[in-house]
Design goal:
With 475 residues, the chain is an alpha+beta fold. 31% of the residues lie in helices and 26% in strands. Helix 4 (252-265) packs across helix 5 and helix 8 (409-418) runs parallel beside helix 10.
Length: 475
């Protein structure tokens, strides 16, 4: 009887410690959470529209524009990703948004990636060419972008995450074309270019595209433990589509894509807040027009925009259907800043520009020569160097690079090829705006994206230095 009771007591002790061990394991088990939200950032009627050589005035709102946010939480680190329906946005405005969001959520500002889609029909958030932002709208943007992060953080629930890579070759074309031997194009500075942007389908002088394209469609999908969709983040290297009525505000194909994805996933009427995001990849020299003439764009306002949105939404949903979700992944953010030179005009450039502006009917500049002369006079007061912020996020075994420029596709392809982490993709126009980022080889050919202006002012070797810094961060 003694030995029987002894064995029974030992059994109870073992069960007791097993329960304690299981409870401790449960309390320390790693839990992944995520939340999403969006804030309206639509500008007021009568204010400025970004995206053209000439300033335009908001006359109507075709569709609301948003700041769309995702917050990821691995239990130790949190990351926030926000993509706003804007052409571009100043670093200072985003820094204000990060400070506000960090104060409310405790997420370090270094862990926040904030970018613009590059729709050319949004409120002006950055002074480029003859559009100037309103200070009240900039303050509004900082608040509303921060609010998207704060709300997404509040919406966090236990979640699962996965990713995949799709492909859509039919909607991306290199818009820079080499000209035939002996043919050149005169730029606004009176110099000869060897390439022409958007040369026209029937241009007899065009030879071939001056660079590649990137047809990949990376997709991150986040679902709740119950299977509700929380968020999707896609990426495509397409500049924008356009095709709107005059004076209208629209998120372009990015917004139409997000609405379509929500509908296809059946996530537009679920209890869990769902946000779809399309981010801009490396599209500085890529658009939706096939100048070879093989593919025709659909006519009419919004027709082509909606077509592109539908094609990409279908591809993204197809990818989502193949994703294997994980219960937990680790999150890491790395940031760096590099000093880059500015291509400042010299005294001859300034004298020439001053004479052109003086002769213009003004104050609105009409011709390309006048517009770039005005840009030259504005650039003469720029500093000789600028600090450019760069960032990399690691989400499990996937990485996102963030560059504050209109990045050429060659740079994006190089990062994908040389990165020690795969898969990886780049979000452009992220954490600020520092103009176009042509490669040195493309600078040598000339063309619109290389013309010195507030939209293109970094040193010729900037892309090489940025690319190397991003690769170092990825290591």
């Amino acid at each position: 009887m003694f030995f029987s009771n002894y064995r029974f007591t030992l059994l109870l002790i073992c069960i007791h410690f097993s329960i304690i061990s299981f409870a401790q394991h449960q309390s320390t088990a790693r839990v992944f959470k995520a939340g999403a939200a969006k804030s309206v950032i639509t500008p007021a009627i009568g204010t400025s529209i970004n995206g053209g050589f000439q300033d335009r005035t908001v006359r109507n709102i075709h569709d609301e524009t948003y700041a769309r946010a995702i917050v990821l939480d691995d239990g130790e680190n949190r990351l926030a990703i926000v993509v706003s329906d804007l052409c571009m946005i100043y670093r200072e405005t985003l820094d204000d948004a990060k400070r506000r969001a960090s104060d409310f959520t405790g997420i370090p500002w270094q862990n926040m990636l904030m970018s613009a889609t590059h729709t050319h029909t949004a409120g002006t958030a950055c002074a480029v060419f003859q559009s100037t932002p309103d200070s009240a709208y900039q303050s509004f943007l900082a608040q509303r972008i921060a609010d998207a992060v704060i709300r997404a953080n509040e919406n966090r629930i236990e979640a699962r995450i996965g990713w995949g890579i799709g492909e859509e070759t039919s909607q991306v074309f290199n818009r820079r074309w080499k000209l035939k031997p002996g043919k050149t194009a005169i730029n606004p500075f009176g110099e000869m270019d060897l390439v022409k942007m958007n040369p026209g389908v029937d241009n007899p002088d065009k030879l071939e595209p001056a660079g590649p394209v990137d047809p990949q469609v990376p997709v991150i999908s986040i679902i709740s433990r119950k299977g509700d969709f929380i968020a999707t983040l896609a990426n495509y290297s397409l500049h924008y589509v356009g095709g709107l009525g005059p004076g209208e505000i629209s998120a372009d194909y990015y917004g139409a894509f997000n609405e379509r994805v929500s509908s296809l996933l059946g996530a537009d009427h679920q209890n869990v807040p769902f946000v779809s995001i399309m981010s801009n990849g490396t599209s500085g020299n890529i658009n939706n027009i096939d100048f070879s003439g093989r593919y025709k764009q659909a006519g009419g306002y919004y027709t082509q925009m909606n077509y592109v949105a539908n094609v990409l939404a279908a591809e993204v949903v197809k990818v989502i259907e193949t994703i294997e979700y994980q219960d937990w992944i680790s999150l890491v953010a790395k940031t760096d800043e590099i000093k880059l030179g500015v291509r400042l005009p010299d005294e001859n450039d300034i004298d020439r520009a001053a004479k052109i502006v003086e002769k213009a009917e003004g104050p609105n500049m009409k011709t390309a020569e006048e517009i770039y002369a005005r840009e030259t006079l504005l650039l003469k007061d720029y500093p000789t160097t600028v600090q450019v912020p760069l960032q990399v996020l690691r989400i499990g075994t996937l990485a996102i690079a963030a560059i504050p420029c209109e990045v050429f596709v060659e740079t994006g392809l190089n990062i994908k090829s040389l990165s020690t982490i795969k898969p990886v993709f780049t979000i452009s126009l992220a954490n600020g705006y520092f103009g176009y980022l042509p490669t040195p080889e493309q600078h040598a050919l000339g063309g619109y994206e290389t013309w010195r202006a507030r939209s293109s002012f970094l040193e010729v070797n900037a892309s090489d230095k940025i690319e190397q810094t991003i690769l170092n961060l990825l290591r």
